[in-house]
Every structure is written in structure tokens, then in C-alpha cells.
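Budget justification aside, the reviewers requested a transparent look at the raw inputs and outputs of the sequence design task funded under Objective 1. We therefore reproduce one unedited record. The lines immediately below are the C-alpha cells for a 186-residue chain.
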């Protein structure tokens, strides 16, 4: 495993595992639902929810992650895309900004490059782009937080800074094609 891939993968692990900062917020948002899910075509289904994802080109291969829903790695650009959902009520009360900030709490030396809202599915989400340093490697990272009526969804895209623009538009398309299909109440 080369150093660039390891840095990108570690940044995604940090995003997925170090989901929020302080006190009760950490307890409420840190762990992703313990659920198994299955992907059938472009539809991902868990015991709590079901949603449609956008397509990625042939260079993206699905990889397994212990927490979260989906992760893809592009070995050509050494980039990673992840998507996680959480339908627990405790996490619904936080703002898009707080949820977004929580995704990168474990990453030091980060600088926000862009932050903007855009519509996805039936609501607005928050896109944030960062330059960061992970394991002495300079990376670029984009996150997107979307809250439906019943679930939170977080997307991430990471790559080396010099390769980030190679797939940034495809990441936005992946987000834009997202559609929540169903949510099962507890």
C-alpha cells in the first residue's frame, strides 16, 4: 500500500470514526448505526433506510469499511469516496454546520477552501472543501452533509491535492443523483 493511498484512507477513517467534537455531541454523533446493508445496482438498503446513489465511472471500485455504508477507491487517481447514513433521532438536532465540522474534528492542519449550500433530493445540504495534512501528506477533502426528514447522510471525497480536481465534478454528480427511497421508523 503506497503512502498516498494510506494517507487518503486514513483521512477517510478519521472522518468516519471521529465524527464529532464535544461532550454529548460526541456520544450522539460519533458512532454510525450498527447495521448491515446491501447494494443492489444503485440502491443501498439497511434495516433502517434505503437510498439511491449516483453512478461512478469504471475506475471506482467498492471497498469495505467497518463503519458507514459505502466506500469507493479510485486507484488511478488514488482517491476515495464514502457515504454514511444515520437515522437516530439524537443526531437530528444538530445543524448542518455542526455536523459538517464534526466530520473533520480529528484532522489537524486543515483549511476551509469553500463552503456552500446546494439542493439534493428534497432538501438543502452543506458542501465544504478543505486542504489538509494527514501523515505529512497534503490532501484535499470535500464533505457534504444532507439531512432528510428522518436521516442524516454524510459524503466525503479525498485525494492528493494535485489529483483532487480529476474527480471533484464526479463527486458532485454522485451527490446530486442521491435520492432517499424509504426510512423505517424505530
Amino acid at each position: 500500500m503506497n503512502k498516498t493511498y494510506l494517507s487518503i484512507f486514513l483521512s477517510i477513517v478519521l472522518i468516519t470514526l471521529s465524527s464529532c467534537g464535544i461532550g454529548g455531541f460526541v456520544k450522539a454523533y460519533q458512532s454510525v448505526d450498527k447495521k448491515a446493508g446491501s447494494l443492489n445496482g444503485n440502491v443501498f438498503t439497511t434495516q433502517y433506510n434505503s437510498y439511491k446513489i449516483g453512478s461512478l465511472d469504471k475506475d471506482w471500485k467498492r471497498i469495505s469499511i467497518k463503519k458507514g455504508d459505502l466506500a469507493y477507491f479510485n486507484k488511478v487517481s488514488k482517491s476515495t469516496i464514502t457515504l454514511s447514513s444515520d437515522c437516530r433521532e439524537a443526531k437530528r438536532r444538530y445543524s448542518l454546520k455542526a455536523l459538517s465540522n464534526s466530520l473533520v474534528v480529528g484532522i489537524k492542519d486543515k483549511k476551509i477552501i469553500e463552503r456552500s449550500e446546494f439542493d439534493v433530493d428534497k432538501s438543502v445540504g452543506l458542501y465544504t472543501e478543505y486542504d489538509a495534512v494527514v501523515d505529512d501528506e497534503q490532501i484535499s477533502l470535500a464533505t457534504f452533509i444532507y439531512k432528510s426528514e428522518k436521516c442524516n447522510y454524510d459524503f466525503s471525497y479525498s485525494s492528493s491535492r494535485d489529483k483532487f480536481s480529476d474527480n471533484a465534478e464526479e463527486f458532485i454528480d454522485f451527490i446530486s443523483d442521491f435520492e432517499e427511497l424509504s426510512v423505517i421508523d424505530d
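The chain has four helices and eleven strands. Residues 63 and 72 are 5 Å apart (CA to CA). Computational costs for records of this kind are itemized in the attached budget.
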